[in-house]
Amino acid sequence: MKLAPLSVPYRALQKAGRLAVTLVFLGSVGTGVGFGGALVAAGVGGAIAVALGYEFAYYRRYRYTFTDDTFDIESGVLNRREREIPYGRIQNVDISRNVVQRLLGLSAIDIETAGGGSTEAAIRYVTAEAATTIQDEIRRRKRGGDQQRADTAATAETANDTEQREQPNSERQAAGDPTEELLFEISPSELALAGVLSFDPRVPGLLFAVFTGSLPFVSPVVPEPEGIATIGVDPTVVWFAVGVVLLAGLVVLSWVVGAISAIVNYWGFRLTRSETELRYERGLLQRYSGTIPFEKIQTLTITDNPLKRQAGYATLAVETAGYAPGQANDRGSEAAVPIADRDRIDELAAEIDGCEPGTFDQPPKRIRRRYLARYLIALVGVTGLLYAASVSVTELTALPWSLPLVGVFLAPIAAHYKWLHRGYRLAADHFVTRNGVWNRETKRVAYHRLQTVIDSRTVFQRRWRVATVVGDTAGSLSLLGNDAAAVDIEIDDAVSLRTTLRERLQASLAARRRQRTTVSAATSTTDEPTAAADESAESDADSRPDDDHHR
Amino acid sequence: MNALHPRIRIVWILRSVIGALVLGGAAAGIAVFRSLSLLVPAGLTALFVILGVGHAIMRYRNWRYVVGDDALYLERGVLTQVRTEVPLVRVQHVDSRRSAFERLVGLASTVVYTAGSRGADVTIPGLTPAAASELRQRLKGLAIEADGEDAV
After folding, report:
1. How far away is chain A from the Cα of B63, in angstroms, using its nearest Cα?
2. In chain A, which residues have their Cβ closer than 8 Å to the Cβ of B83?
3. Complex ipTM, two decimals?
4. Cβ atoms within 10 A of the Cβ of A92, count?
């Protein structure tokens, strides 16, 4: 199959656009050296022509096909490339469309597999229908590659099917799987809340970078201490006022930016599930849709902060081993429920991974003193630096260096909450951890998803006789060092936790292997739906969310 | 529990001495340029060498590894002590490698890769070349036996 014909002009203009900008820039510089405007125009025209020609050749050469067990892509004008991706290895298939692409009816597809930081296959622009077809076809083939198992599961599936048909209210996607079931759809009030409660922490950093760069331009605006002294106001007060205003402005701006980007990102968010995977759709300007097979889900993360807790809301993120698409410029995992009722989130999460609720084991209470000491040391450090600056640099004598000391009153509270939020829990099939002072993160990792178990103790931890146990997974957000971690637990607990995690990993893998063999044994006797087959189909359905279908 | 080959200390000490010399050289350069006493860079170099040697010795003392029935277990670290369990099912591939320093003292390392994000590669240094390739073979065998299909 081929790309969409309209992708030729679109890609050509995309490419020529970049070239044209360079040329126009060169032209504007070069007019002094004798470059004519005509020459630039000719250059731009030529660039477009060349790009069109190239893209046409690209279009002619590009071909993707579905074989029995791989998805093949042949591409390249000068360098030819043939790529085969086994269906079983595909983690997620994502479709995205920006405004222009939507007008032209084009879709971009990204296919992710585990391993490697980059997208395995980026199909640049097929028609919208073709995109959905590819997504559905890959899903179908993934399942088809395991036809024997599908047969056994068929009984369960049809039962599920009829159940669905009896409920005409349940929404389904016209193009999608008929068994698709709506799990979650964002309501306007939730979207508004998501916006209101979003604070973009990147904005202060960005502003800082911009402002330090443009400080020479800003400084004339800031009143000079000498100038103020003549008015008769204490310069310290002015500095303080300016600081407060700047800080308030920063907070408001971050908040507005966060709100807008959250609303644009999560416009029309809906999450559906079929028998084997989750499918999400979202976005206002750029429309994203993607699928996440249950068997590839690594971690579920539920996040809340005091504001959200007060209002009874929480956030849910689903991680796979694939590189989360657009992560670099986007807000984390794509399949995240930005905000929803706490109960809805808990229900949805349980629906996805089947983890039961429970109570957390907390670090020893004495560790609060360590956190408090840490905060106090940091505060003293900052104050000391400010003081040193105010003493050594004459312009900064008015610096309110003692301001951070206000934090001394907050430190005990923060230390207490840090301890309170920390904890871990060994559920029947999951290792659950909770961390964070302001943003409280609960991570759930199925035992059979653990990769390595790391137990570490820094010098300071050893002094307090505590250790940190990290359950490393192949998740994508984990690249930022956000693995499920039981931090600052007693050393003895850490040792036994480490062993327990290893044992449960082995046990759950063994259980899954047994299950696979029973199922394949049962399917070999296809004619008669024996009790054994029924049983295995049932147990299969029970553990469906994290079942391994790719074999 | 296995300890590393004692000669690995030579590799680590050599590395830290070279690092200290580079740092000391830079410090000496600055001192000469600003016509200051050379005592400070010399003292710094000596300090780094002492720290490096101490660290290497402690590191060697704290390093332990064992290949169990279903997991590779490592214990290491001086300031931060780390204990890692690598289930053999999770092993993606195994390398044995020899750096220039290691060749100098006739040692080799084995590197075990998993699909994880943090402990994605685990290095066991200080093995004799024969031991390194034997360990590689053994881990490979055990990983295959442990059924690597659940690697992710």
Report:
1. 14
2. 454-456, 498
3. 0.85
4. 28
